[in-house]
Structures are given as C-alpha cells and as structure tokens.
Amino acid sequence: MTSTIIGYARTSTLDQTYGLAAQKRDLEAAGCEKVFHEQVSSVDKGGRPELVRALEYVREGDVFVVTKLDRLARSMADLIKHKDTLEAKGVTLKILNLNIDTATPTGKLMMNLLGSIAEFEREIMLERQREGIASAKADGKYKGRAPTARRQAEDAKRLKAEGKTAEQIMAELNISRSSVFRILRGE
Question: Among residues 12, 42, 75, 135, which one is catalytic?
C-alpha cells in the first residue's frame, strides 16, 4: 500500500493571497502530492468545505500535512475531532512549523500539549477583549453595533402597507426574514 501526502492550506480572508500562496509553496516543498486550499474563516457558519473534502479524501497510510496548527483547528475540541478522524482512518498528521509528526509518540504528545496551549491563549485573548469592551462601555465609549433592521422599521412597515411580501421587503431593505417579522409584529 502506497501512502499519499495530502496538504491543506487555509487563510481567513480573501485578502490573504500571499499567505495562501506561501502555505501552498511550503506544502509542495514538503512533498504534498495533492493540496486542498480555501479562504474562509475557521469560525464561518458555512464551515470549511475543502477541509471536509480533504478529510474524506485521505486513506489509510496517508500523511495529512498543514503548515501551522491554527490552519487546521481553532480549539482543542476541534483539534481532537480532526485528530480522531485522521487516526480512525489510519492517517498521520504533520504540522510543519512545529516539526510535529503524529506517526511518532513524541509527535502525538507534542500535538496534544500545543493544542491545549493554543486554546488557552485564545481564551485569554477573548477574556481581554471582553474586559476591554466592558471597560469601554463603562466609560461610555462603546455602543456596540447599531441594529440595522430597527433603523429600517418605518420603511419595512411602509412597504408592508404598500402590499409588499416579506421576501420583497427583505430584498429591498437587505434585512433578514426574522427581522422583517419582528418589525411587523411590533417587537
């Protein structure tokens, strides 16, 4: 059975074309025969379709390669899920910038430790962000995002009075279906 080296590259935004090109270059230099790539945030509701395709594509004995841990997962739970998927298929994981290879016991240990550290760092950053927002609110400097749909309540009511459907109101005002009905119910 021959193994295939499969790469996965991801950037969070379309603006990061150089970052994506650098990842693809590094993956090809690492011997990847096939590289799946996409430009989506790891927290997008639409998910990461190319990651899903890559994880479905790999077969027993293959090696799955990413340039950095955060290209694959944003939380320990996410990392464990992907690691378990790969392990169940008999696929090893390599993370280039950390020189981690789960084909070795040390690689497995290091990946688990680094995943925990990455999740800890993210939680600290989010905590600081929440503290900063709370402080700005207390100082009257932070108002949050203005509710878009509420500003258009009068327009939505007017359009409904003119006989427009909810779909037409949604399209014309660029607001969600739930916002249209919330406005029309008077909430």
Answer: 12
The tally of domains found in the chain comes to 2
Asked whether residue 90 is domain-assigned, the answer is: yes
DSSP-based three-state secondary structure for 126: helix
Per-residue pLDDT in tens (0 to 9) along the chain, 187 residues = 678 999 999 988 766 777 899 999 999 999 999 999 998 875 666 788 999 999 999 999 999 999 998 899 877 778 888 988 999 999 999 999 989 999 999 998 987 787 778 778 878 988 999 998 889 888 888 877 666 677 888 888 899 899 989 889 888 888 888 888 888 887 5
Q: What is the pTM of this model?
A: 0.61
**Do residues 77 and 9 share a domain?**
yes
d(CA 184, CA 3) in angstroms, rounded, equals 59
75: annotated active-site residue = no
Domain extent, residue 181, equals: 148-185
Same domain, 177 and 103: no
